[in-house]
Amino acid sequence: MTNEIPILKVKGLTVYQGSYLAVRDVSFELLSGTDTAIVGPNGAGKSTLVKAVLDLIPRSAGNIEIFGYPITRLRSLRRLLGYMPQNFIFDRSFPISVSELVGLGWMLENKRGNSFFQRLWGQDREKSAAVVKALQRTDAYHLRHQAIGTLSGGQLKRVLLAYCLVMPRKLLVLDEAFAGVDVQGAADFYALLNELKREEGWTVLQVSHDIDMVSRHCDRVLCLNQTVVCTGQPEIALSPQNLLATYGPGFSRYQHHHN
Length: 259
Ligand SMILES: Nc1ncnc2c1ncn2[C@@H]1O[C@H](COP(=O)(O)OP(=O)(O)OP(=O)(O)O)[C@@H](O)[C@H]1O
Prior knowledge:
The chain is of the alpha/beta class. The protein is about 35% helix and about 25% strand. It contains nine helices and ten strands. The site of adenosine-5'-triphosphate has 12 residues, from strand 2 and helix 1.
């Protein structure tokens, strides 16, 4: 259900990457239970924007409020936030299984009233059940015993999404989560996001290059090219004029590729 509570408020955000002005004076809000896509050409500042919004890189100007708090005071609320970065770089010989990785996303909740050992045992069972459910939801359960270093690109995306889903979240931030996932897989992922949004009230912010999927599945679109070019419902934000303004004249070839 969509209601009018802003989960995230970004005002006047400006970010430099080294000496390069990557994001300039960006403002937007995310309403609870909505799925917003950030689109724009390569180098437009999309990844920089989401990293700065999550306070993972410094900003030179701007205010960010998340769940009603300044981002710097997020601390214990971080578990309400799932983030899947564009690239996940790791040593492929690192001996950790898919289940173990997904389990790392599960955090202890402070439950009172039981003894230490009861809590420990209960939480272990809860964690195992949550890992199984998350892997089933992303169609990666069959990979659970595999070492993460042996996964294909698309399989790894499924497992990383399971890592994000293993806890209930309020905000899920995905940076090209579906790049490299096959067509059926991407459609399944969008169906899953829809379920999380409608049935569990999650809010989604996703960077995507798939204009076709975005126009079919997202509630709002933010067109970015260093700064916000336009924002609104997909049918408005992705009009030919707005796409031209965002991507420049080369876009028609890209769009053709998707039709
Ligand atoms: N660590 C860095 N140091 C210097 N410049 C950087 C760094 N990271 C990004 N940039 C530059 O900042 C600009 C924005 O990069 P960013 O990765 O945010 O773009 P993007 O819209 O996510 O691109 P893509 O669609 O290719 O993933 C680019 O010009 C890039 O070269």
